[in-house]
Amino acid sequence: MYTLARQLLFKLSPETSHELTIDLLGAGGRLGLNGLLCKAPASLPVKVMGLEFANPVGLAAGLDKNGDAIDGFAQLGFGFVEIGTVTPRPQPGNPKPRLFRLPEAEAIINRMGFNNLGVDHLLGRVQAAKYKGVLGINIGKNFDTPVERAVDDYLLCLDKVYAHASYVTVNVSSPNTPGLRSLQFGDSLKQLLEALRLRQEDLTREHGKRVPLAIKIAPDMSDEETVEVARALVEAGMDAVIATNTTLSREGVQGLEFGDEAGGLSGAPVRDKSTHIVKVLAAELAGRLPIIAVGGITEGKHAGEKIAAGASLVQIYSGFIYKGPALIREAVDAIAGLPRKG
Q: Catalytic residue among 17, 174, 266, 318, which?
């Protein structure tokens, strides 16, 4: 069924088919029909960040930026759903076209630029959803907020989403917002993390619950830079790291149509880079901080590879576009078949 649907959707422009898919999944979710689209994955509960996940395979941020299809995605069998990236104010994102399929490589290039309807719209959608599972909300800064004041945007979003999120992801690694990735390094990172931790403590007291904070990083760092980031996250008391966002590399798509478009590359070509970052993080963190792995999972066995590399959870995005909801069950099955750790 999904093969036929994909053939039809791929006849449309990438962004049009994306919007149509969100609309259809959202409608199906409201009617409770999406569970009929695929066989449910096996039960594989796991506890990470103090949260109980139905299974370790989640939806990565970016597919449902505004939270318009939370119930729809959940009914497909995801163990958790992450929505966003959301910014304090609505913004249109970068000029179109800004989303490109590279089917020969099972890849996508995007330069969306955090297009979203703003945090208040997203919260309305969250409150309207019936989903009671683990919900991550991914936050970012507006494009016109100077990098030096980025912390203000992150704190504003954190204040607003805190009571409604199971965990909050801080996106400092999108390549499509100028200057954003500079927040991953040195004093900029430490100052941001310290501000987030202090605000998390205040909000914990205010709401009577502690909502974990995860930091999403890029795949384009050296091993040394990755180790430095890992140490900074531990020192700042963060709760998880998500590895990784899209890459600026064009390895694996050279010579393909749209392969030289600007933006972040996701899908199969980023798989090895992402898994390598997971391995470096796992070696440095030694279990002190859980890793959520995302990047290039287009078959179930790739999810198993991420877990074997040291991740506790995985997320899928581009693989879902190319393979459909059956990939969720394949990934859960592959993880279930791994030897038990310890």
A: 174
